[in-house]
Design brief:
Shape: globular
Organism: Phytohabitans flavus
Distance between the termini: 44 Å
Protein name: NAD(P)-dependent oxidoreductase
């Protein structure tokens, strides 16, 4: 059974392929579908089949999905054009006779007002209408959204946000990747919707306290009004539109819309999700290695 992973050169895609290999899936049964094949020469060297797959070039998608049984459609990163891109991928999957489309979506995508949700909701509908059996992997926040930014937290002694005392069910990408791999190679996932999040939700105040505890430095959480937080993000170089999406997402976090307590993630991966303390430790170790 051949499985394909789109966006395989990205952080999540690479982890999914690694998880598939770790589960004993032969490299020759894995297709890394990427916009730039040269970026995954390391995967090709392992025997993974690398194929060009550009969401904006349907002809590449048709060739990439040929002979594929199950497809993981990792959502694109270009906000505003993703529905059209994903539709191209779904149409190509239908034409190729793919038997399952797994899609990385957003928490409660069909009912939430989370700023990133509309494109995910629309994509889910495109997949449903296609008639291909599906699995929606509605991923909560990646904990790396926080642990990749520990340098500034340590430099300024603060983590900024607009989340108040809201809790987020964040987990590492590797946990979400393991869940995707379990679906791609498992049975009984047709037409299922999984709300995925870490077992131990935390506030940003708790995150700051954990960073302070492990680093031995003073780090606090500084809660800001939504617009002030957006301007702070713009000041450090984020594009205006993206900064406002992130600030709006923080307000959604404050309102409990990134709190996922279904237990779906730990059930799919067959173990508890990675604790926050472990993720912070890894982030600090990575930072020390880079410095």
């Amino acid at each position: 059974m051949t499985v394909a992973v789109t966006g395989a050169s990205g952080q999540l895609g690479r982890l999914v392929i690694r998880a598939l290999l770790d589960r004993g899936v032969p490299a020759g049964e894995i297709v890394a579908a990427v916009r730039s094949p040269e970026k995954v020469a390391d995967l090709a060297s392992l025997g993974v089949r690398v194929r060009e797959a550009d969401y904006d070039k349907p002809e590449t998608l048709a060739e990439a999905f040929a002979g594929v049984d199950r497809l993981l459609l990792i959502s694109g990163s270009e906000v505003g054009v993703r529905v059209a891109q994903h539709t191209n991928a779904v149409n190509a999957a239908v034409a190729a006779g793919v038997s399952l489309i797994a899609y990385t979506s957003a928490p409660y995508a069909d009912t939430t007002d989370l700023p990133i949700a509309p494109e995910h909701k629309a994509t889910e509908e495109v997949i449903r209408v296609s008639g291909v059996p599906f699995t929606f992997l509605r991923n909560s926040w990646y904990v790396e959204n926080y642990t990749d930014n520990l340098a500034s937290a340590l430099q300024y002694g603060a983590i900024l946000g607009a989340a108040g005392d809201g809790k987020v069910s964040a987990a590492p990408r590797a946990d979400f990747a393991a869940a995707a791999a379990a679906v791609l190679r498992g049975e009984g996932h047709d037409n299922k919707v999984y709300e995925l999040g870490g077992d131990q939700p935390f506030t940003l105040t708790e995150l700051a306290a954990e960073v302070a505890r492990q680093s031995g430095r003073e780090v606090v959480y500084r809660d800001l009004p939504q617009e002030e937080y957006a301007q702070a993000l713009i000041a450090v170089g984020l594009p205006d539109g993206y900064a406002h999406v992130l600030a709006g997402s923080d307000v959604s976090l404050k309102e409990g819309k990134l709190l996922v307590e279904t237990g779906d993630l730990s059930r799919l991966i067959g173990r508890p999700t990675t604790p926050l303390a472990d993720s912070v430790a890894e982030g600090l170790a990575r930072l020390a290695h880079l410095s």
